[in-house]
Amino acid sequence: MRITVLHGDITQRRVDAVVNAANASLLGGGGVDGALHRAAGPELLAACRELRTTGLPHGLQTGAAVATPAFGLPARWVIHTVGPNRHAGQTNRALLVSCFSESLRLADSLGAQDVAFPAVGGGAYGWSAMHVAQAALDAVTGFRVSHPASGLELVEFVLHTAEMEAVFRDVLGPLR
């Protein structure tokens, strides 16, 4: 599995799956969540509403992941995950790692060969770039060990700021 780090717009990535740093409601929001919803079109919101009425009436739990079609995005799927909100007192690092781990597991189970991640938890939810990059490193390392026959060939970290990109490059450097 190759790991890449780049500065860019995750809504433009031509990969099998893009990961959405969603909120628990799955009904859109700001940051990456809002950008993905806008780029995917209203069908993404409709699919998320369907998830809420059929299997997730209370929303998506922190650290969990669920997939929808990607609709207007150049990807096949959107994998939604909810990071812990540090500003709201959710400081359990294991939940942050779980966002990355569960998204990797779900991407693999969907048959994805490549997946693009944002800095889950690193925006409005208040986790530092270093904490997010370390969580991503732990998740990727753990996934490689626990899923040696995975079909995932490429994991991209698509960062919105040059600062976040630099931290991810430093932390994930040994994996690349």
Automatic annotation (TrEMBL):
SMART domains linked to this entry: A1pp
Gene3D superfamilies in the record: Leucine Aminopeptidase, subunit E, domain 1
Any Pfam family the entry gives: Macro
Coiled-coil ranges (or none): none
Listed InterPro entries: Macro_dom, Macro_dom-like
PROSITE patterns to which the protein is assigned, alphabetical: MACRO
Ranges for domain Macro: 1-176
The protein, known as: O-acetyl-ADP-ribose deacetylase (Regulator of RNase III)
